[in-house]
Specification:
There is one protein chain. This protein has 4 helices and no strands. It starts with 5 loop residues before the first helix and ends in an 18-residue tail after the last helix.
Length: 114
């Protein structure tokens, strides 16, 4: 590459990166399509595989239960009591406290002709 101009070397590098990224996207699409096909043709097999992959620890189970509970509350429109409105009190206090009136600073006198 030492005899090739910088612009040509950059073009080769750019082409290699583009090829690599495109190849990765195609491989990802193939696996996604294969998974969708298996879900349609063999749903029980896919369900068993997903169950085998799922984390079996207690903390993971608690997290799943908590997320399900949040999802259900969100659908019902119930607010989470742990969540607080941020800045509500500050907004109220600043709205009703008197602010100092700013007086314009005297600047240099400019004469306009015209």
């Amino acid at each position: 590459m030492s005899r090739v101009s910088i612009s040509k070397a950059y073009a080769v590098l750019l082409g290699m990166e583009t090829y690599k990224r495109g190849k990765a996207e195609v491989e990802h699409a193939e696996t996604a399509l294969g998974h969708q096909k298996d879900k349609l043709l063999h749903p029980k097999k896919v369900q068993e595989e997903e169950e085998a992959k799922r984390d079996k620890s207690e903390s993971a189970e608690k997290e799943r239960q908590y997320l399900e509970k949040q999802r259900g509350a969100r659908e019902k429109g119930v607010r989470d009591p742990k969540k607080r409105c941020r800045g509500g009190l500050t907004r109220l206090v600043t709205r009703f406290t008197p602010r100092k009136a700013s007086t314009p600073q005297p600047g240099p006198a400019v004469m306009r002709t015209g």
